[in-house]
Design a protein that fits this description.
heterodimer; A: mainly alpha; 4 helices; extended; B: 12 helices; about 0% strand; Brnchd-chn_aa_trnsp_AzlD (chain A)
Chain lengths: ~100, ~230
């Protein structure tokens, strides 16, 4: 087994263990740990969106001008339809058209 | 009491279609990144959390950055702590054993549909379980099909498929918009991500930007309420 495969198994194991622990501990600790209001709750509320943005913004810029165009179209689509699937399609098609006809 | 497992399963079928589609995209991307099929299957069974699987596959490279990948995936999944906490009313009559058994099947989709149903109907955790199994199957079949079809696509860049990650995550992030108070933390996150990705090797900039961005939201909120 190569070291990449071993690393992959280590990663999968710990993410699986951690994710299951989060699911169960959230239920078991319930409202004891996270209060209705508070810094921790607010921080956690923002984490999914900030994490996703941190992930995509450098990738959008790396794509160049067309990346910004695609991002803007996704923004418009989400604003108008709130459909993630349609936004996905628009983003991918925009990039594909550009690469096939303008590069 | 009717068969609540079946009720939950059926109630999740419409959303299962989009889960199937996302799954097939992940399958296609997995082949491009050199993820083995058994690794994808292990993730499906034991992690079973879509967006974190996307993050793991995207960070998949010739060398796997163990700490950064585990941290990024678990940070994405931190919300499951709150999902679990919010399910307390559903499990109020349940034993610990039942809690341990069913919670693995709480996904964004099955959770959302369960919470919606809980408002109007007195359901048990079996509803959540049935919904979770529906999502599990559609996700599993979608990823494996995508994985096998993906092998026939020679140059995925022509189809813009590498951009699918970016498009999905960006759309998902936008779907989380709750109001004007989000704009400044989101801009801070974007700026920190762009700057730190230039200076930091690997994928750790994701974690740094997310923590700074979320923390900025806490500080901004405090300043406003003072």
């Amino acid at each position: 087994m190569s070291s990449i495969d071993l690393n992959a198994l280590i990663i999968i194991f710990f993410v699986a263990l951690g994710t299951y622990s989060l699911r169960v501990s959230g239920l078991l600790l319930s409202s004891k740990f996270v209060k209705e209001e508070g810094d921790l709750k607010l921080f956690l509320d923002y984490l999914p969106s900030t994490l996703l943005l941190a992930l995509v913004v450098p990738s959008i810029l790396k794509e160049g001008m067309i990346g910004l165009v695609a991002a803007f179209l996704i923004f418009l689509c989400m604003y108008k339809t709130k459909s993630i699937l349609l936004s996905l399609l628009i983003g991918v098609v925009t990039i594909a058209l550009y690469r096939n006809f303008f590069l | 009491m009717k068969n609540e497992f079946l009720d939950g399963f059926v109630a999740n079928m419409p959303i299962g279609i989009s889960v199937f589609t996302y799954g097939s995209v992940l399958g296609v991307l997995s082949t491009q990144k050199g993820v083995e099929l058994f690794e994808l299957v292990l993730m499906n069974i034991f992690i079973f959390a879509g967006s974190s699987q996307f993050v793991l596959v995207q960070m998949w490279d010739n060398t796997l950055d163990i700490i950064a990948m585990i941290t990024a995936a678990l940070l994405i999944n931190l919300r499951y702590f709150l999902v679990g906490a919010s399910l307390n009313p559903l499990f109020k009559q349940s034993s610990k054993k039942e809690k341990f058994k069913y919670m693995h099947f709480a996904t964004d989709e099955s959770w959302a549909i369960t919470m919606q149903r809980l408002k109007s109907q007195d359901i048990t955790p079996k509803f959540l379980f049935g919904g979770g199994v529906c999502i599990f199957l559609t996700w599993f079949v979608g990823t494996v099909l995508g994985y096998n079809l993906g092998e026939f696509i020679n140059d995925p860049k022509i189809y813009g498929l590498d951009f699918a990650f970016v498009a999905i995550f960006f759309a998902l992030a936008l779907s989380m918009y709750k109001g004007k108070q989000d704009i400044t933390p989101w801009i801070i996150t974007a700026l920190v991500a762009v700057v730190s990705s230039l200076y930091i090797d690997g994928n750790f900039y994701i974690v740094i930007a997310a923590i700074v961005g979320s923390y900025s939201a806490v500080i901004l909120h405090k300043r406003k309420s003072l």
